[in-house]
Amino acid sequence: MPHETTTTTGPAHRHGAATLTIVDASGAPLRDTEVTVEQTRHAFTFGNIGFDFVDLAADADADAAAANADATAHLADLFADVFNTATLPFYWGRFEPERGAPDTRRLLAAARWFGERGIAVKGHPLVWHTVQPDWLLGLPTDEVEQLLRSRIRREVSDAAGVIDTWDAINEVVIMPVFDNGDNAITPLARARGRIPMIRMAFDEARAANPNATLLLNDFDLSSAYECLIEGVLEAGVQIDAIGLQTHMHQGYWGEETMLAMVDRFARYGLPLHLTETSLVSGDLMPAHIVDLNDHQVDSWPSTPEGEARQADDVERHYRSLVGHPAVEAITYWGITDADAWLGAPIGLVRADGTPKPSYDALRRLVKQEWWLGPTVLRTDERGAVQVRGFRGDYRVDVRGTTAPFTIADAPARVHIVA
Amino acid sequence: MPHETTTTTGPAHRHGAATLTIVDASGAPLRDTEVTVEQTRHAFTFGNIGFDFVDLAADADADAAAANADATAHLADLFADVFNTATLPFYWGRFEPERGAPDTRRLLAAARWFGERGIAVKGHPLVWHTVQPDWLLGLPTDEVEQLLRSRIRREVSDAAGVIDTWDAINEVVIMPVFDNGDNAITPLARARGRIPMIRMAFDEARAANPNATLLLNDFDLSSAYECLIEGVLEAGVQIDAIGLQTHMHQGYWGEETMLAMVDRFARYGLPLHLTETSLVSGDLMPAHIVDLNDHQVDSWPSTPEGEARQADDVERHYRSLVGHPAVEAITYWGITDADAWLGAPIGLVRADGTPKPSYDALRRLVKQEWWLGPTVLRTDERGAVQVRGFRGDYRVDVRGTTAPFTIADAPARVHIVA
Prior knowledge:
The structure is a homodimer.
Chain A: E1 3-5, E2 15-23, E3 34-42, E4 45-49, H1 54-62, H2 69-82, E5 85-89, H3 92-95, H4 104-116, E6 120-124, H5 141-159, E7 165-170, H6 185-192, H7 194-208, E8 213-218, H8 223-234, E9 241-248, H9 255-266, E10 272-279, H10 304-322, E11 327-332, H11 357-369, E12 375-378, E13 384-390, E14 392-398, E15 401-407, E16 412-417
Parallel strand pairs in A: 1-13, 2-16, 4-5, 4-11, 5-6, 6-7, 7-8, 8-9, 9-10, 10-11
Antiparallel strand pairs in A: 2-13, 3-12, 3-14, 14-15
């Protein structure tokens, strides 16, 4: 038995093991040698929205000094210390407000900026009925479809290799029937039907980037979404992951409700991504509000009591979901309260840039309890050490040589020449 | 222009016309001759449940004198005077409480009894997760599926020609997830998925009776049912009509809500059947009850105020739905309050056998306003009269000869030898 280090905390189904055998240049095992191993990345997606960094990244790209660059850089450090994935906004109406002038350069600069920091990027969303370009209005349905297809191909293909995960289509359950003001997508969805809309989004995105991970994403977690998913699967459309939104402005649902919901969607054998998680650190939104967008308040402060509750909620939410084998991603919906959705104090960082207790609670889980920090081991008589821990990327340092290795589902055997 | 009689009342899209040319044995037109035309049946399905008549029909069949035969015969007259279709119960758990001993003879006797009275019969339901046989419990899933398939084939094939309309499957939206006590169908639906369950029901029923009209039927009229229907249509399963339940124990929904719902389901271009309509003539069930079955009361009387409201509700409900072109059937869920579902006063006839105002209101619509009673016309110089009216079956009497004719979508030309 090689010497072993084990992360014993956290759910066992997240763990894996690697056996490292250290040899010298001649191939002889380095016995009884000190090595240092440490985790560098989680395989599990701990995501957050990266909307706040698009300007910073664009400015950095242009080498301009923004007034608030320092604050944003500080926020970026907080982001990168906990999250390994950023969701960037591709809402068509904002991405291409003027027909033919998409915001590709700025968004891809932001995506690369994250990439340089080891943070993967997900695009959100390719098809939705909200935040749509005005210039689509009044065009014939067939032309809207062609423009939508082109836009999917363009965004996915321009970003391929930089952004390889997409919410292919968003909120389809409500898409053909939601009274959402004037937009060109609702009538298209009504004319074509929900499943053809989904097939359209997945077909175009898949053709533009066969390596992409494509999600169906919805806030409607009722039987309606189950029925839709079953129809899509019967129709032979390949979904790579099921996206489940959980905006909890009206209060944390609790582990039991959340896991019962997750169990319902786990039936399909597909990875589950909790794509949009919000928990407030102030007053809760009244329970009678049906569409969260209908709750407009002048001021929605973060409070000490709210922050304590949010920290507790965040910890329970992540602990229970990381504990469910079907869940592969949790994306939180806001790093900071500044410019947060609906003005709600859902951020993990206050508007003044200081971390809330929820940030610290999540960091403790992600980077301590579920994380293998630098750990010194000694090789056995065959030059081997065994490392157990959360699945993800690791590195080993031995005699001045550094080598990466991965802990995945299957036990790995790695030979390192040092 | 032949002389004409027109039913000018009711929605024009329900009307049709037939031109009758009356000739003598030599083929010469009978000019200026008196003919009497009258309607004998509506093409539109005005249905009700026939559960109360199963025993009567079976007794009559056995030539036995039941104690309450007179009362039931009176109820049967009231039924036959308004309704042209009866729904009969084929709940598996009651139809075959002992494995291998189905209640086929009694149910088919009832179906024939209705047939002899010019009343078509519909079977309800072939597949459901409620009222299931106990003897299915504990059997392996594959065996449950085989037994279910056999039961569908058996019932549909035994009844072919007598019952040619079926609720092929009932309440699929909730089928795999509803916590409904111990039954063998919920686990089967969870294992197979909703669409395969629907395909199973339709495939087996279609194979057993290719002429049958097969319905998908649900009480969940939300987006979930739309998503399910779209998935089923994408999967290539042929649905003959979409069944929409409207049990309104908590109060009439009103024309606007009802028609907006109907419009959502009319999008699929399929006939819509309002399969289960209830309106109470007493206190309304409290609005907070979610599952109507959860409301248990010792006594739920019909009241004068309730009866006046029910009559008004019934008239508005039928008037608005007959006015919608996609609706082809409305089935009311109870002729009498005696033994009505949930003990609710939803009947159109009181428990003592006297008609409520709702019965009279509905009869007035179905047999007066929307109906062509015996009408005397004179043929023109070509021996012709034109008849306009609600689509359905008619007859003409001329010089002692009686001949049937039909008013359908396309104008008909009928030659009658008298």
